[in-house]
Amino acid sequence: MTAKSIKLACSAAIAMNFAASTVHAGSAEAFIAGAVAGTLLGAATKPKSSSSSRKTYAPSPQRQANREMQAALNYFGFPAGTPDGVIGSKTRTAASQFQIFMGYPATGTLTQYERDFLVASHNRAQIGGPEVIKAMQGPAGVRGLLHTWRDEAAGVTTARNSYGGLPDEVSQAIDEVAESSEPSAEQLLQRSGFLLLADLNNDGRNDYVIDTSVSGSSFWCGPSHCSVMVFASTPSGYVRNDFQARGVTTASFSCHQSVCRIHDTPQTQMAVAPNQQGSGQQTLPGTTMASAAAPGLPSFDFGSAPAEVSLASMCSKVSLLTNSNGGYITAANMVDPELALGEQFCLTRTYAIGVGEQLVTKVNGATQQQIDSQCDGFGAVLDPVIATLPEQNSLAVRSSVQKFALQSNMSLEQLTSTAQICLFSGYRRDNMKVALGSALVLVGVGEAPYAELVGHHLSQGFGVAQSPDMARGWYEMAISALNSGSEPVFAPGQPERIEVIQAAALGAPAASNAPIAASATTGGLPSFSLD
Question: Is residue 24 part of a domain?
Answer without folding.
Answer: yes
